[in-house]
Specification:
By secondary structure, the protein is an alpha+beta fold. It contains eight helices and seven strands. Helices cover 61% and strands 14% of the residues. The strands form two sheets. The protein has a five-stranded mixed β-sheet with strand order 2-4-5-7-6. A hairpin with a 2-residue loop joins strand 6 and strand 7 (345-353).
Amino acid sequence: MKHSLLWKLISINVLSIGFVIVIVWVAVDLLAAEYFVELMKEYNISPVSSHRMFVDSVHRYLEWATVAAIALTIVLSVLLMKRALGPLTRMAEITRRIAAGDYSKRAPIRSEDEVGRLAVSFNAMAESLERVEQLRRDLMINVAHELRTPLTNIQGYLEGLLDGVVPASKETYELLLEESLRLADLVESILRLAKADAARAQLHKEEVDVADMIHQALETFGPQLAEKEIEVDENLGSGEIRVSADQAKLRQVIDNLLQNAVQYTDRGGTLKVSAHATAENAEVVFTNAAGHLTELDLPFLFERFYRGEKSRSREHGGAGIGLAVVKELIHAHNGRVSAQLSDGEIRILFTLPK
């Protein structure tokens, strides 16, 4: 208790009052007493005995004043500082609970001073930790869900082959290969996401032309777009749109957005791609059919393993990692990414600083 902040602050106040008392004491002994002696001499009064009486009485009153001042300081300091430092004590208790895994508690905000601002920042940190913990739990649940389906299918086919229920035909082995490829694709997606998380410290920036990269990506995805008869509406301007970025990671962003559009756009639909430059940023927009998405999906669209298609059928997309990778890579470039729904279309917009 003697090392607590409360008693440190009280000690500072007591020392300050003690220093003031010492100065007053010295001033009385050296200045007031001398002036009193001169005053006695001026009026022809013997200063010896009166000087001693004066000094003793002043000392006595100073002693009482010192005791009263220190006692009042301690009482008021305890009352006022406990109130002022209460949020800090509460924060210390909440910190212990957070360390134990309870992220639900928040520090009280009773003022707008430094302690109040600290409480606001502390609560924001606690909310962030709670959100991260929830994401971690969701990640484990979603990974387990994604792994369980192909593993269960593989196990079922293998047991059927052993029992002789399932014929050892080419079709059976093709089904087993398909399920194993699903597992490999999921592991690869998780690996890409892990690399995206670490991208901020591993960027190799250079000057790149965003419009040219989009042209190249559209050519690469040409067969997939043609297979679904998706019409591409390009609006990339006539000039260059140059930014400082990691070319490989920016290409991954564009590829993920194109792959997402191909998966969720119905046959015969339209994909709109536009890009333009401002004084400070380059802005790119991908627009395609919204499919099953609603306004309720937008806040979670870039979260890991989140999919707007609630049945989680493989016919409607992958594991729900593509847009999470996009978010991590854009944020690693100090850019911004967002999604909007309008007239049955989803607009994925990202900006990169030049």
